[in-house]
Specification:
The N terminus is likely disordered. The strands form five sheets. Strands 1-2-8-5 form a four-stranded antiparallel beta sheet. Helix content is about 10%, strand content about 45%. By secondary structure, the chain is mainly beta. A hairpin with a 3-residue loop joins strand 9 and strand 10. The chain is globular, with a radius of gyration of 24 Å.
């Protein structure tokens, strides 16, 4: 682009720019993912564990990562700042999506998602006012990756119907207990095969990194009543001994994700 010629004295222009820079307050870089603490899924007279959630709104084109990030990345971390005697469980990870990028692929999240977490108050908590806060750290990625951190907070009791609905939807995206009649894990021709019955067409997301090569698109086929999913073995998958447990989740359309726990059979 061609620059317009300046008609004012060069020295005065330089002085003006210098003064402006000197008094301008530094601004923090804008986040590519906005996070907030929402919930809980409870009522003021509730006792026992309660659900909260970290809501993450991604800018278009940006994503964060699942517990197993795939080829690259880092899962979101939460550092809780809770009242004495309170504790938080690990994130109950919702089902991710596969995010291909050239020959690689990651597992993560886009759009507006909620990471549910179960909190355990002290037994004597009577729904009296309490302040909860946490530091959330994540890796936001598009064409490049940027580590981001934000402090979030919430005062309880503060039931919000909209937040409760968000948590309800998020919990339906977390995997439910294993309920397959048949689960089998085998290695064949350099690939890991997961066989499930009953099931529908879907995708298996392994919890362990390097179990498979995430880059090539997995294959899914139906043989009789059994769905068979396969992907190239990763470094860890090649080294596993028969009898090792392979865990993950099975994700299919219009159904809640299901946990998979298979014992690797002898090749």
């Amino acid at each position: 682009m061609r620059c317009a010629r300046t008609s004012i004295l060069p020295g005065l222009a330089f002085l003006t720019v210098g003064l402006t820079s000197a008094v301008a307050a530094p601004t923090a870089p804008a986040l590519h993912v906005q996070a907030s603490l929402i919930g809980p899924r409870t009522t003021p007279d509730h006792k026992g564990p309660l659900w909260l959630g970290i809501r993450m709104i991604h800018q278009p084109g940006w994503h964060t990562y699942w517990s197993n990030p795939g080829d690259a990345g880092m899962p979101t971390r939460i550092t809780w700042h809770l009242p004495v005697g309170w504790r938080a469980d690990a994130i109950d990870w919702p089902a991710p999506v596969r995010l291909p990028s050239g020959p690689l692929a990651s597992y993560g999240y886009i759009g507006d998602i909620v990471l549910p977490v179960m909190l355990f108050p002290t037994p004597d908590w009577q729904s009296t006012p309490v302040h909860l806060s946490a530091t959330v750290s994540w890796l936001a990625c598009a064409e490049s990756c940027i580590p981001e951190t934000l402090d979030v907070e919430l005062d309880l009791p503060d039931p919000d119907a909209r937040d409760g609905a968000l948590l309800e939807r998020a919990l339906l995206q977390t995997p439910e207990a294993f309920d397959f009649r048949l689960v089998r894990a085998t290695r064949h021709n350099g690939r890991l095969e997961i066989t499930l019955e009953p099931a529908g067409p879907g995708e298996f997301f392994p919890e362990e990194e390097e179990l498979i090569d995430p880059g090539p698109k997995p294959q899914v086929r139906l043989e009789g009543k059994q769905w068979i999913w396969s992907a190239p073995l990763g470094d860890r998958g090649k080294r596993l001994q028969p009898g090792a447990h392979i865990t993950g989740i099975w994700v299919q359309n219009n159904a809640r994700p299901r946990r998979v726990d298979a014992v690797l059979e002898t090749s």
